[in-house]
Structures are given as C-alpha cells and as structure tokens.
Design brief:
mainly alpha, 2 domains, globular
C-alpha cells in the first residue's frame, strides 16, 4: 500500500485537542490523526477484530474513546434496521432479509459493547460519563 499526502485544514480548537492527545501519549500529531481516522474507517467486522479492538481500547486517547462512544450506524443502516424490524414484526421477512437483519443487529451489539467499554475507561480516567448517560436517556 502506498502512502498518500493530503492537506487538511483543521479548526484551531480541534488541532489543540489533537496536539494535547499527542503530547500526553508521547506520539506525533500525525500519528494521532492517522489512528483516529483509522479508528472509524476500519471499525471491527469480525469477532476476532472486535476482541482486538476491545483489548486495545485502553491505549486510545480520551478523544478517541469519546469517538467510540458517539459512533453510530450509518443513516442508511439505521433506516434499513427499522424497516427490517417492522417486516419481522409483521412476519414477512425473507430468508435473505433475516440474514441482513441478523447482520445489522450484530453491528448494533458490537457498537454497544465498544461504547460500554469506552465509557468504563473514560469513567476510570475521571470523566463524567453520567452526564452522557443522562443525556442519552433523555433523548430516547
């Protein structure tokens, strides 16, 4: 795989957060940014990848952990999940749709596991995760 170079304009506030994370982890700003991008592009798909991610969460910066907390299904996947759930309730799912529904449920379960682990780590690091949980509860 060849490397590509891009120019990316980042708001000062965001750059300062990345810079603090880089200093705290004794890493280059570029590496923190690459890891953060990779975090969301390469979200785990298999049980083995999920196990690896859970094991590595402790090495993530606080900003990366909050990114995991706020990660959600794409709008397309969320819409399809609702659509298939409705068809399942009506008893009209095909076998192919059942497989698709099972896969989407797996993605939701994966996100919930990662979110829970990330929240636990953030709480252990002194962050107020109760505020997040209250906000999340009030939006439901």
């Amino acid at each position: 795989m060849t490397d590509r170079t891009i120019t990316l304009h980042i708001p000062s506030e965001l750059y300062e957060q990345v810079e603090k994370a880089a200093q705290a982890s004794e890493r280059a700003v570029e590496n923190v940014l690459l890891d953060s991008i990779s975090l969301f592009v390469n979200y785990p798909q298999t049980p083995q990848q999920l196990d690896t991610w859970v094991a590595q969460l402790g090495s993530y910066t606080d900003a990366q952990l909050w990114g995991v907390v706020y990660h959600r299904l794409s709008e397309t996947d969320a819409f399809r999940l609702r659509e298939l759930s409705d068809k399942n309730t009506a008893g009209t799912l095909t076998a192919q749709e059942q497989d698709e529904l099972d896969n989407l449920i797996h993605l939701v379960d994966r996100d919930m596991l990662l979110r829970s682990e990330a929240l636990l780590l953030l709480q252990q690091r002194g962050h107020d995760v109760e505020a997040y949980l209250k906000l999340k509860h009030s939006l439901q």
